[in-house]
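Ex. 9. Protein: General secretion pathway protein H.
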Amino acid sequence: MTLLELLVVLVIASLMLTLVAPNIANVLPGSELKAFARQSAALLRELRSEAVSQSQVQQLVLDKEAREYRNNGEVVMSWPDEITVALSPGELPAFMRNPFVGSGALMFYPDGSSNGGLLSLATETSGSYSIEVDGLSGRISIDER
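Predicted structure tokens for General secretion pathway protein H:
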């Protein structure tokens, strides 16, 4: 191969990429929701890991007006306008419930447990995902609905 042939192939490949790249989001509906669900689950796993390694309670608060996740008052992640996020508190035994935590927060404790809950992520067009946080084990799982 000559250098000229290689340059021609690179130019053709770059032209194809500029034409195809903007349309990828249209071809894969729900890809943004799926990516956000995975990012949210990764964030929850990271908070659980930090709670265990630092021996400190970690808290994820949903700020629905600002469309953000917060931890210790700092913005950790914001979500796109077309995605709606809701948190349903978990069903823990009465002796494990924290009366100071509202329904808009997930807590991770130094022993690896959590207050538990179900984080629901949805859009009007591309379905929904639910991220379940087990109260006793702190295990995080994603389900597509």
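Check your answer against this statement. The chain has one domain: 30-144.
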